[in-house]
Specification:
The structure holds two protein chains of two kinds. In chain A, 38% of the residues lie in helices and 1% in strands. Chain A is mainly α. In chain A, helix 2 crosses helix 8 and helix 12 crosses helix 14. Classes of the chains: A mainly alpha, B alpha+beta. The interface between A and B is medium-sized, with 27 and 18 residues.
Chain lengths: 340, 202
């Protein structure tokens, strides 16, 4: 009789465990924004999945010598870009070839990296984990290390229904975190929602921006995701041929994906090689056609505009309205570890 | 461990009942094993340390054949049409970009191209000895963009009970080890080498 009772009890507990679902997480699409491109069916978001991804993002366990985490190169308060270094640093202080971009609004991106070579956010993290200049590890080792951590095993089981942690689970958990990094509460956003007003200078800067910059840095995401050249000239120390690395076509040489300008004030240094550390320098480049080097896309060339110092300052004032402090300092996206 | 054993045992039982297809790679009629020298008729010899490639079976299922993993040389059974079988060697572009990361798609197998989404369809590493000189080589052949897509559909003659035979001499005797000992990028050359490989399917 006792045994029967225990069997009933454990069956009951199993049933509860089975039906207690992951708490689903709705993905918020700000008003007036296009439809996200991320395939949420491939990786349904849940509160637990997000927290698992967040913990992994901040955990150096993913690197060869357990010294480098994703956040070593993608810091929250710099809009998840690498601060200070023109190109990113990884394990053994190895220096990469490119500037780590900020991570935000990734759900809308049709492809990733400066050359658009990465087509899915789910697969993206294989790059940093296995790249010798970044985390320098290999996936088999990462899985072994993760399976050894009891807390991780339990959460993986909860999120993906198995303790047999596979590559896809690690990658999908990371993607649940990174795809949730949505920045939509800058002064610019609140202005478009008519919650605040721009200053006179910001208004002037916005008008200039729409005239000279918006073709490529298209609102509301501040990129059209196309491959262009803004005429900064080839960096002879790195000779990065950009998009042509992927397509092998001469016409794509030295083209890079137009970056978003959101949270720009905090995501310095700028450009694929991090050559400019100040917005002033960026504006100085765009202001004078004499600075424009080959190759350069047709949009700016057709106009051959000049911007005087006051206009440059106006544009910078506008660019600063793209800062979203709520995003940069939100505890929801900050450090967390399920190992402690 | 127990689970894994149970899985293998049931898989074996399945094959026992339904049959299976063995992949046989050869150089001039000699079966290929890793880490072994093979003399070619012209006096050169070749030593292969790694050989893996993707096949799409008539059932549309994807398999990764890895010469270092004996089990992967046993393909699940597929049925015949008039003693021929339609195979795809190398995934097509849809499979390349499907975003699936499970089973044979797992980046763990080292076939996933992280910085240029897609998969290497054939990975081959080794040494070619030409006129007494050693030339190490490493080829990661892939790419799904036309005109250099490394994916070929081929009707192959095959009889029930026979192995699926792949002759590697054409591929191995045309490796550009002097000029291009390493290829890690899609393009015309990767495409040509991959084609040489597919021509070894009987």
């Amino acid at each position: 009789m006792k045994t029967v009772f225990f069997i009933m009890l454990s069956l009951g507990l199993c049933a509860v465990a089975l039906v207690a679902p992951n708490q689903e997480l709705d993905f918020f699409v700000p008003q007036g924004w296009p439809k996200p491109r991320y395939n949420f069916e491939s990786n349904p978001l849940s509160q637990e999945g997000f927290e698992l991804g967040r913990s992994l993002f901040y955990d150096p366990i993913l690197s060869k010598d357990s010294t480098v985490s994703c956040s070593s190169c993608h810091l929250q308060f710099t809009a998840f870009a690498h601060v200070d270094h023109p190109t990113s640093h990884g394990v053994d202080s190895r220096v990469g070839k490119r500037n780590a971009p900020g991570l935000m609004n990734l759900a809308w991106a049709p492809y990733f990296h400066w050359d658009g070579g990465v087509l899915s956010l789910n697969g993206q993290a294989v790059n940093p984990i296995t790249h010798p200049d970044e985390m320098g590890s290999d996936l088999a080792t990462v899985l072994v290390k993760l399976k050894r951590e009891k807390e991780y095993a339990a959460v993986f089981k909860k999120v993906f229904g198995t303790e047999d942690i596979k590559t896809q689970h690690v990658l999908k958990a990371l993607a649940q975190f990174t795809v949730s990094l949505v920045s939509y509460n800058s002064k610019y956003d609140r202005m478009t929602r008519k919650e605040v007003k721009f200053s006179e200078q910001e208004k002037k800067g916005y008008a200039l921006f729409l005239k000279h910059c918006n073709q490529c840095h298209k609102e509301p995401l501040f990129t059209n995701y196309e491959f262009k050249s803004n005429g900064i000239g080839v960096n002879t120390a790195l000779v990065d041929s950009g998009r042509a690395n992927i397509t092998g076509k001469a016409k794509d040489a030295f083209l890079f994906r137009v970056p978003t300008l959101r949270n720009l004030e905090y995501s310095f240094p700028y450009m694929h090689d991090g050559r400019f550390s100040k917005l002033k320098e960026v504006m100085e480049h765009y202001a004078h056609p004499a600075n424009w080097a080959f190759p350069i896309s047709t949009e700016p060339v057709k106009k051959k505009y000049m911007l005087n110092l006051a206009q440059q300052k106006d544009i910078i004032a506008f660019l600063k309205t793209l800062t979203d402090k709520g995003f940069l300092f939100s505890p929801q996206f900050g450090y967390s570890s399920i190992r402690e | 461990m127990f689970k894994f054993r149970f899985f293998t045992v049931s898989l074996l039982a399945f094959f026992f009942v339904f049959g299976q297809v063995k992949v046989e790679l050869s150089i001039h009629g000699v079966p290929v094993n890793l880490n072994q020298w093979y003399a070619q008729p012209n006096g050169d010899s070749v030593y292969v340390t790694e050989f893996k490639f993707y096949l799409v079976l008539p059932t549309d299922s994807l398999v990764l054949v890895d010469v270092s993993e004996q089990e992967s040389l046993q393909l699940p059974y597929f049925s015949l049409e008039d003693e021929t079988v339609l195979l795809r060697i190398g995934m097509d572009s849809v499979m390349n970009t499907s975003g699936r990361l499970d089973g044979p798609y797992d980046p763990l197998f080292g076939m996933y191209w992280a910085w240029n989404t897609g998969y290497t369809q054939l990975k081959c590493k080794g040494i070619l000895q030409l006129a007494g000189k050693h030339h190490p080589f490493e080829y990661h052949l892939g790419g799904y963009r036309s005109p250099h897509a490394t994916s070929v559909q081929k009707r192959i003659h095959w009889k029930e009970g026979q192995p699926l035979s792949i002759q590697l001499e054409r591929f191995l005797s045309n490796l550009p080890v002097r000029t291009q000992p390493k290829i890690m990028l899609p393009g015309a050359l990767a495409h040509q080498l991959f084609k040489n490989f597919t021509e070894g399917f009987q």
